[in-house]
């Protein structure tokens, strides 16, 4: 299953819960993570601002990215103004469209309000877990 995971889900995963379960599905090979250069830059920029109690999860994340574990990459997909209220969200949609992802997993209200772009469904972590399990 090809997914784009919004940065807010990665950050939330450090605190456990459903976002952590989504990330664990990626780590275990149950999901293929679709990323682009702009998406990876945001992951690293945002995660670098935090001090996490669980550094082992951060190291596991960085290692999985570096080893390209279950990752599909596109350099710089063409962005459009799908989300005018928060243009930074457009990078996730561009990545998903370029790599033919099936889902975008996000807790962001701007993305969730779209519900669907082309054939790509935009789901919360809870909705994604219901689909997986």
Task: Based on the model shown, name its key terms.
alpha/beta, 133 residues, 7 helices, Rossmann fold, 6-stranded mixed sheet
Task: Map the helices and strands.
Elements: E1 2-5, H1 7-13, H2 17-27, E2 32-36, H3 37-47, H4 55-66, E3 71-74, H5 90-98, E4 103-105, H6 109-114, E5 116-117, E6 120-123, H7 125-132
Parallel strand pairs: 1-2, 1-4, 2-3, 4-6
Antiparallel strand pairs: 5-6
Q: Kindly report the name of the CATH homologous superfamily.
A: 5'-nuclease
Percent range of helical residues: 40-55%
- Overall average residue pLDDT: 91
How many strand elements? 6
Order of helices and strands: EHHEHHEHEHEEH
Q: Cα-atom Rg, whole angstroms?
A: 14 Å
CATH architecture: 3-Layer(aba) Sandwich
Class computed from helices, strands and strand pairing? alpha/beta
> What's the shape?
globular
CATH class: Alpha Beta
The main sheet orders its strands as 3-2-1-4-6-5
How many angstroms does the end-to-end distance come to? Answer: 13 Å
Q: What is the CATH topology descriptor?
A: Rossmann fold
Supply the number of helical segments: 7
Largest sheet: 6 strands, mixed
Low-confidence stretches: none
Roughly what fraction of the amino acids lie in strands? 15-25%
Q: What's the number of domains?
A: 1
